[in-house]
Amino acid sequence: MASQAAFTDIKTLRSDARKNTENGAVTAGYGADRQLVLKLLNEALATEIICVLRYRCHYFMAKGIHGKVVASEFLLHSNQEQAHADLLAERIVQLGGEPDLSPDSLTDRSHAEFVVGHTLLEMIREDLVAERIAIDSYREMIQYLADLDPTTSHMLKGILAVEEQHAEELADLMEGLHA
Known about the structure:
The chain is mainly α. The protein has 6 helices and no strands.
């Protein structure tokens, strides 16, 4: 015998939707610790902004025979990291928080560091280290959120997929420079 799913009746759904409308998308059914999620998302936002800045710096600093090719990859990654930051900021607002873009504490909240490499290989390595940090950070957040906040979890899974792609591309660039 199949188990019957428990769904809220229509009358209750309608009644509950009218309560606490100032909370926007955050309904009584939101299962995660919202303050913790906002903290984690603001840390992720800081991480993405630091990555945007580091990639942009490396874009301008890339020199040498492979400089233009590597620089174009840095610029592409910088733009993609900015898109991630925008998604995170939008989700923070949806959850009733404020995106913390204060430059005074950005590096303290970021999981990744702002380390400038001086050679192409150093630049790529620093960017790869930051991507690996982001990958592990996002995996942990996704595991925590699971079914508690499926919208944020889904968004983070999309960002994670791009971060993994970045890591692979950077590893390939490193290999290409060693060859």
